[in-house]
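Why do we care about 3D structure at all? Because function follows from shape, and shape follows, mostly, from sequence. That is the central idea of this module. The next example makes it concrete: a single protein chain, its amino acid sequence, and then its structure expressed as tokens.
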Amino acid sequence: MIGEAIDTALTLGWALIAWIAVLATVGTIALLAAAVTGAWAWRAAWRAVRGAWRGPVAPQGPFEVSRITGHAPEPSQSHTGPPAPSWAHTDKEAA
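And the structure:
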């Protein structure tokens, strides 16, 4: 009789531990899904607000331009970066 009571208590203890583990896993997945959904919504809202402040903005990268127009953009003739190092060769020097 006492042995059956101890066995039942152990079985109920393991069942309780299993339920806690399952609930913790499901809760963690739900919280992560809520966080990802919230971050996605925040980013979409921020982009909308930022776009409203700036007005309509044309695509920036060459991929976007080629995808929209059907042809690649011409390379820029201006050099906006830092000057090239002295050891770098340019196309004009190679010719």
